[in-house]
Amino acid sequence: MTKKQTWSDRFETSLHPVIAVFNASIGFDIELIEYDLTGSIAHAKMLGYTGIITPEEAQTLIKGLEEIRQEYRDGNFNPGVDQEDVHFAVERRLTEIVGDVGKKLHTGRSRNDQVGTDIRLYLRDQIQQIQGLLRNWQQALLNHAENHIETLIPGYTHLQRAQPISLAHHLMAYCQMAQRDWERLSQIYDRTNISPLGCGALAGTTFPIDRHFSAKELGFASVYENSLDGVSDRDFAIEFLCASSLIMVHLSRISEELILWASQEFSFITLKDNCSTGSSIMPQKKNPDIPELVRGKTGRVFGHLQGLLTIMKGLPLAYNKDLQEDKEGIFDTVDTVKGCLTAMTILLSEGLEFRISRLEEAVNEDFSNATDVADYLASKGVPFREAYNLVGKVVKTSLGAGKLLKDLTIEEWQQLHPAFETDIYQAIAPKQVVSARNSYGGTGFEQIKQAITNLKNKM
């Protein structure tokens, strides 16, 4: 540990070595260094613009900060625990480079508004990167959807065969989820894009700073109207973790389905070698590791959301050291979401194939067209509830005879109700069943084509 203590002459001794390690955040907040340097450069420009320091001093600070940036990028700036956090590490190194003028950088700000600025700059950047990955994920889904508009798949409710649907319709549901994720992040971006810089420790500053100048330099849309709120607000971070949790919910749901579809019991997809692994003792197996990992990693993102909510729920205004604990969860969430989106996009794009013949068999081996028999009778003037009850009896009778609905003779149909005619066979054919559901947002082929076009127009 350095012999020079971090704090003012108020303190007579340095921190205990164990406490110094416990207190330090440099091990993880070094992630923010580029953003800290960018924020400090904007602050230095503002100090020069307002005359708080001379223009020459401002330029000296900016040059020194850019030198630190290059040192970091070159791997030559690696502060340790004795630096406590990234903010002190930068300021100390700056003073080493430019001399005493480096000590003027912190004029008119606190670490409280400084770290708040850094985390917002970081999240703004990461939100845009995640939105780009969401677009890639949507495109992978869309590519399959466009190729499988007339490929049918059993639709399920309660994990029981319900009605046949287009495979494209199923995949487009996840496209819509991803679109909401993208839009949600856009809204959170707006609430992240507010500058706390200049709020000071909690009450502002006596120096004649120009918060709007530094905000404009950093691309912020506005500034916090209340300095207490500015340094203590983490709503935007909670919202980001919530949005990330929903992204993971959606990825986990399709992961569960892909795991089921890859099983021998379903056999709806085949996993390619580049996106699956084997067993250490069972040579015949192909394991769906990617969707299983995504399903498992979802829990850690949920945990980070719960963790930050718990941190915030009892904090009095304004800044408290508890807020140091917000960063690791945010960093890990960003890495997890980006990693999962990337892996799932590769899996959909390159790592699986739909087994068309098996899907065709699946939609022809059940009673998922039963609702269409009821609709058929209703179209002939039979009250729907009466038709519904009658079809229940038809299914029961067919099961007892070991037949599917398509296997019943016209005589058997007409014994059940005289309204049945030979067109019943066309009405309950799987492709007709799907095509006929042409209500807006339905699985009808024309509706799916329109849905694809509509989504493309948003992307």
Describe this entry's structure for a reader.
The protein is mostly helical. The protein is 61% helix and 5% strand. It contains 19 helices and six strands. The strands form three sheets. The chain has a two-stranded antiparallel sheet with strand order 1-2. Helix 11 (289-312) runs antiparallel to helix 12. The longest helix is centred in the N-terminal third of the chain and has 37 residues, at 111-147. The chain starts with 16 loop residues before the first helix and ends with a helix.
Distance between the termini: 53 Å
Shape: elongated
- The total of beta strands comes to 6
Query: Strand order of the main beta sheet, please?
Result: 1-2
Largest sheet: 2 strands, antiparallel
User: Residue share in helices?
Assistant: 55-70%
Order of helices and strands: HHHHHHEEHEHEHHEHHEHHHHHHH
List keywords for this structure.
6 strands; 61% helix; mainly alpha; 459 residues; 19 helices; single chain
Write the layout of secondary structure elements.
Layout: H1 17-23, H2 26-29, H3 33-50, H4 55-73, H5 86-98, H6 111-147, E1 152-157, E2 160-166, H7 167-192, E3 194-195, H8 211-217, E4 222-223, H9 227-232, H10 235-262, E5 269-271, H11 289-312, H12 326-350, E6 352-354, H13 356-362, H14 370-379, H15 384-401, H16 410-416, H17 424-427, H18 430-435, H19 445-458
Parallel strand pairs: 3-4
Antiparallel strand pairs: 1-2, 5-6
